[in-house]
């Protein structure tokens, strides 16, 4: 899929030129792939740096669902400490289509609140000569569109065949800091709009359980000093779908 690979390259190139001091960190967008009323989807994902995302969704009707998501990270390093948490709530529309109803379109929107703490240290001769501490609460509004296909391919591992699902989610996040302190001194609040495209592949272990690999990035549409696009999405995880009923014609 060369077009998809080109898009991934572009978003990661945008990431490389952005600052690593961003006080905003994206979570894995919720891509529940709901198909019928009464279905529940849940997922857990983690990056190599310990950024964990937890997603849940429930189909209230044949086409309307609600979701709740959370993200956490607590990483302590020599030059940088990161403590981050965010909680999201939303809802939206889903629909299956195609000759076998194996394609899914989902459109969701919601609200979120988060808190980000960062510590940055500079050394000379292995001695700390300066430290900066950032503490910011922020609010977020988001809209996203998910498109996915179920069991469009198979992979053979040790003689066993596993189905593969593919999908993408394009999220637009409107983020604004509420209380932003640097070294204990209140700073002017900042706002930004982030375009957050991600691509995911799921390996089907059973009708209910799948393993998921997710890659993507966030691109800041405004130039900001602290609330900028400084982190990517690169995770592995697992998802479950239960309560799925056969589609009736």
Give an overview of the whole structure.
This is Outer membrane protein beta-barrel domain-containing protein. It comes from Pedobacter chitinilyticus. Keywords: Signal. The chain has 249 residues and is mainly beta. It has a single domain (2-242), classed as Lipocalin (Beta Barrel). It has one helix and twelve strands; from the N terminus they run αββββββββββββ. The protein has a ten-stranded antiparallel barrel with strand order 1-2-3-4-5-6-7-9-10-12.
Strand order of the largest sheet: 1-2-3-4-5-6-7-9-10-12
Q: Please give the number of β-strands.
A: 12
Largest sheet: 10 strands, antiparallel, barrel
How much helical structure, as a percent, in the residues?
Answer: under 10%
Oligomer: single chain
What is the fold-level CATH name, i.e. the topology?
Lipocalin
Total individual domains: 1
Signal peptide: 1-24
Protein name: Outer membrane protein beta-barrel domain-containing protein
Keywords: Signal
Structure described in brief:
The protein is mainly beta and 249 residues long. The protein contains 1 helix and 12 strands, in the order H-E-E-E-E-E-E-E-E-E-E-E-E.
Write the layout of secondary structure elements.
Layout: H1 2-16, E1 40-47, E2 52-59, E3 64-76, E4 80-97, E5 103-124, E6 127-157, E7 160-182, E8 185-186, E9 191-204, E10 209-216, E11 219-220, E12 233-242
Antiparallel strand pairs: 1-2, 1-12, 2-3, 3-4, 4-5, 5-6, 6-7, 7-8, 7-9, 9-10, 9-11, 10-12
Q: Main attributes?
A:
249 residues; mainly beta; Lipocalin; ten-stranded antiparallel β-barrel; 6% helix; globular; disordered N terminus; Outer membrane protein beta-barrel domain-containing protein; signal
